[in-house]
## 1
Amino acid sequence: MAGFKLKVTPEMESLTDVCLSNSKMDVSLYGKYDVKRGLRDINGKGVLAGLTQISAIHSTDIVDGKVIPCEGRLYYRGYDIHELTQGFLKEGRFGFEEVAYLLLFGTLPDEKELASFRRILSEQRSLPRNFVRDVVMKAPSKDMINTLSRSVLTLYAYDTNADDTSLPNVLRQCLNLISVFPMLSVYGYHAYNHYIKGKSLYIHHPDPKLSVAENILRMLRPDKKYTHLEATILDLALVLHMEHGGGNNSTFTTHVVTSSGTDTYSAVAAALGSLKGPKHGGANIKVVKMFDEIKKEVKDWNDDEEVGNYLRKLLNREAFDKKGLIYGMGHAVYSISDPRAEIFKKFVEKLANEKGRTKDFALYNSVERLAPKIIAEERHIYKGVSANVDFYSGFVYSMLDLPTELYTPMFAIARIVGWSAHRMEELINMDKIIRPAYMNVKSVEDYITLEER
Ligand SMILES: CC(C)(COP(=O)(O)OP(=O)(O)OC[C@H]1O[C@@H](n2cnc3c(N)ncnc32)[C@H](O)[C@@H]1OP(=O)(O)O)[C@@H](O)C(=O)NCCC(=O)NCCS
């Protein structure tokens, strides 16, 4: 595919300067008018924007009337994420399908319900005739979330009842999207790998008997082979990324866009656009790339001082992408700990030992230990910073030999379940378009004619 380059011209640069000087806000005004930046207060508590029964995040306790940060807790439909994951892991099942059922319908499935839900998902795991050839293989992109959004928006054209927002129809669309996201992501990657990177092309069909995690590995690998531990850990990663309250950036986007009465494909494409950002779902790639740099730049990985100095360079915009961030650390709501990172970490250690990556794991451990203190020295910390789920997910994906291009799509394959549950909750309960306010702080000007400007 021929590249299409449009350059920023000097004229555009000077227009940017004009825009900057007329749009930069005096930060003190946020305090003056009590406007919550990022719709959160300094303790990370979000502005209350809605009610949900789908999940709950706890990051603070009230002790003697005071708000105190606490260990993070996450509940899916009232069930603690620790107990949920322990439940299916102990009983030797893959969790994706069961937890998706819980999030969508609000109750844990019994054996019969689970079997029939698995069958529905397998039946829905099909794309329109020639969709892969006509859509996925055409104009491949280097970014798989872009490919995924394009596929989602094109599925609208194939759906003869695309605009019907009645609940049964929306459920049908959501179940289909949940089922085909792994195919769209993996095939999108194969197209990119073939047409842009010049590698061999192969397309493996999913096996209806397999779980979502097993099918991802089967479709991705040339020999379709994977171990049980690999599929178990990928399944766990998907469950941990499936849902995170109504306020996270992409789910809130789903609520906002759904509230306008638009179709499912438009709402999901908007959520994908949000997820792509490096401060949201795009963080897991950044973590792995950042660690590649740390491994190159830091000579002694056991030397806390040397590792710490590199972390300071990251914060001072002197290293890696010069954005001043230590990726995988911090969270908009959690402070002391992110329960998803804690659950994941136990398995990461196991996998790292099996894959001979114990030295890497030790380096991750050091960064996890040192970064909160160093961020606190360099930034204003009100609520504490700790490792988030993406600190470990990228590392796990690298041990599973997933290409980096598929890291954020793995998040999307999981989070489409949460988006679907929230879209249905919005449709069931709300008939009001979401429309918050922005305060105008610009004075009114007298119009000046073109001649007088
Ligand atoms: C997730 C994130 C956007 C939350 O930011 P936030 O809501 O501003 O978090 P806090 O209020 O705790 O941050 C307090 C300060 O510490 C800074 N901070 C927080 N995490 C940081 C990090 N990982 N690296 C550098 N600085 C960080 C914030 O920028 C803020 O500084 P400021 O007041 O000078 O702007 C932020 O932690 C981040 O960018 N992390 C790295 C990206 C990442 O891993 N994202 C995945 C999230 S699941």
Note: The chain has a mean pLDDT of 94.
## 2
Amino acid sequence: MEKIIDENKQGESLIIEKKAGNNRKLFIESYGCQMNFSDSEIVASILSENGYNTTQDLKDADLVLVNTCSIRDKAEQTVRKRLEKYNAVKREVNPNMKVGVLGCMAERLKSKFLEEEKIVDLVVGPDAYKDLPNLLSEVDDGRDAINVILSKEETYGDIAPVRLNTNGVTAFVSITRGCDNMCTFCVVPFTRGRERSRDPQSIVEEINDLANKGYKEVTLLGQNVDSYLWYGGGLKKDFDKATDMQKATAVNFAKLLELCAQAQPKMRFRFSTSNPQDMTLDVIETMAKYQNICKYIHLPVQSGSNRILKAMNRQHTREEYFKMIDNIRRIIPDCAISQDMIAGFPTETEDDHQDTLSLMEYVKYDFGFMFAYSERPGTLAERKLEDDIPEATKKRRLQDIIQLQQEHSHYRTQQHLGKVEEVLIEKESKKSDAHWAGRNSQNTMVVFPKENYKPGDFVNVKITDCTKATLIGEPIGYSENN
Ligand code: SF4
């Protein structure tokens, strides 16, 4: 693979991998969670073995793929707007381009996508990307093509991703696929299937390859990383049928984290997304044991009300969640924690909403991802519960949550004032080309003067000021991990 430097729409420099001899051009864009962005790198790799290199120019593409998200109605509307854009480009400047849809919306709509969107030639679900070459030959023969079969085994562990839109410093490595939790508001179990974990050996090989290519940080990815469990392949739910030997040698998430941290002691490790009902103490203890496992946990909670948590089929109470938070604070006092929150879930009362605010007051999260409830077709909540909270009430409650989170985010950033933080430089600051930007172990962005440092350096920075979301400081030298 040959590497060239390019720029994205934001003017940030990017490393693009190209394969010599490939003469077809792939334009691929992704929406939604990091899993989708990571999957698009798998797709780019499969197609680079079939004559395609990526291009940043839609007008120049032979094949246009959009990796779609179904988590909220707005995400699907965004995709439909992009398809209109492709339609215009196809009509005006690129009549031969082929268009395909990937990801969760493709899996949710299946052949309906071909009926509803005439521009679409190809529909491929998250577990069927290895079938792309066959499907593309059908499209080349003038037929529409579709494969939305969900798999019990597929983890793409044997595919070396082609890094897309990369800064050459940080990368994502997927470790599990699917989710068995069936939260009543969520489409993921329907669009990504049952939980299965990837062979730890192939994960460590990918991490070693990234280290050899100069990457300094890896985020281990999964819809629900805490339920990672490798016992030789197969679904998580079939673990009880495993042999005694398989059970004795099984690798859980804490063990996998340890394997990664030991394999590359100078590389940083993060992980996302956790689930409070599956997170175990040994994960937190392993984080505390290794300096190169970052002190940050994304721990979605969705609501602070026990009644609503039950209606969401979240398998924990607010009290059990507080206990998890207390354990994290006891074992890793400076650990940052972030949340996902839903405002206006069906039947939510003002008291339930106050429970959410009081839970946030207890935790004082570093930051969060907060949304109003969006009914998703096919979910248990859509089938059983009426979406009965008025939009205005949803909006007001969401505003309450966002406002409180901003107060807490500022409270948390102020805790860093006067401290020295190890920062991994990722890119130029958005606000000044005289400053670098990178994150500390707690996943907070830090901005400081460039001096002679460069992206990929670990730098100790004295924090002198902060905003609600960003720390500002002065570099005082390379960290020992550089
Ligand atoms: S844990 Fe719940 S919210 Fe998260 S992906 Fe699984 S079903 Fe969806």
Note: The longest helix spans residues 391-414.
